[in-house]
Amino acid sequence: MSPAPAPLAPPVPVLVAPMAGGPSTPELVAAVAGAGGSGYLSGGNLTPEALADQIARTRELTDRPFGVNLFWYEPAEPAARAAVQEYAELLAPELAALDVTAPELDWEDLDRASEKLDLLLSDPVAEVSFTFGLPGPEVVERLHAAGTAVAATVADHHAARCAATQGVDRLCVQGAEAGGHRGTLTTGEEPNRLTTTQLVQQVVRALGPTAPVPLITAAGGVTDRAEVEALLTAGAESVQVGTLFLLTDEAGTSTAHAAALQDPEITETVVTRAFSGRPARGLRSRFVAAHDAHAPAAYPTVNQLTRPLRTAAARAGDHHRVSAWAGTGWRQARPGPAAGVVEALTPTPAPGRPSGSR
Ligand SMILES: Cc1cc2nc3c(=O)[nH]c(=O)nc-3n(C[C@H](O)[C@H](O)[C@H](O)COP(=O)(O)O)c2cc1C
């Protein structure tokens, strides 16, 4: 077995979350790294070529180590075909409203994840994190041999134990407050409602004293320094933050998504399958309110079905028809430099980390 390479361990224990669909940019990762944190580019929904470009650009902007996140899932369940067809019929007026035609669905789509893994094996980054599924011991071993640490996103303590036995170096423990998709291991399961703090405590208990224990990164609903400190006390080594960075200058969040985040008439976030077929937390827009109850558990086919609608809505500035993923702390997201977010979250003093080592 190859020795496990060191996972990301920036001076400030704040990792910017991978955020597919635009928000993640090389500029955002570099800005957070420059402020003493670290984080991930999002490889999900990108072509391998686009991911390679983003990695190259990030290296131009920073010499600090960073990670890449991949979507890692099983093919869509063919049994869901009828339900997806019914949902497509229900959504037809939404598509018609923006003059878009229903797309052909690809039931074999795996997000070209194995090609992106090959890219990362031939041109390694510091860490690769996986979501929607666990990488398995063989992939972990190949990444370790390439000099790359491995993180797995988990949303319950069973998944945490399973990932630990596969030899991952970090568990991204994602609580119910988290924006974006829940890191459940199957499309059909309903995620639990444990808060990030409760889940971190449960995972720490479930892992017990067995060595080697992966690092724990807490994700979900982090909006201030006191929450970071509480999560570190609960057993996390770092926090992974998404929503708070969505409106920052360096994020690539679409204008429509940003408008949804700042619309005073949108008053809550909910976990919904309406846009993608997988449970994800986002703003309760008119689209979500109308279709949440009818959306089938079918990923990525429902995601494919709504893609042209979301693209047209983003172009038209229709913020009720874009998937405005956001965590429960969305009201705290503000425009400004990403470094300001890192500074506001930095524990005083950063526990267990050398100061001034950026
Ligand atoms: C807009 C958006 C997109 C996201 N995309 C991804 C992704 O591509 N991969 C992933 O592992 N997590 C993704 N997440 C979830 C984050 O990794 C993280 O769990 C979450 O942002 C933490 O909660 P917070 O948003 O309350 O900070 C996304 C979150 C948001 C808000």
Automatic annotation (TrEMBL):
From the UniProt record, list the reaction(s) this protein catalyses.
3 propionate 3-nitronate + 3 O2 + H2O = 3 3-oxopropanoate + 2 nitrate + nitrite + H2O2 + 3 H(+)
Q: What GO terms describe the biological role, i.e. biological process, of this protein?
A: response to toxic substance
Q: Which Pfam families match?
A: NMO
What keywords were assigned to this record? Detoxification, Flavoprotein, FMN, Monooxygenase, Oxidoreductase
One annotated GO molecular function: nitronate monooxygenase activity
Q: What does this protein need as cofactor?
A: FMN
Q: Does the keyword Oxidoreductase apply?
A: yes
Q: Is Oxidoreductase set as a keyword in this record?
A: yes
InterPro entries from the xrefs? Aldolase_TIM, NMO
Family the entry assigns? Belongs to the nitronate monooxygenase family. NMO class I subfamily.
PANTHER family from the xrefs?
NITRONATE MONOOXYGENASE-RELATED
Protein name per the record: Propionate 3-nitronate monooxygenase
Source taxonomy lineage?
Answer: Bacteria, Bacillati, Actinomycetota, Actinomycetes, Micrococcales
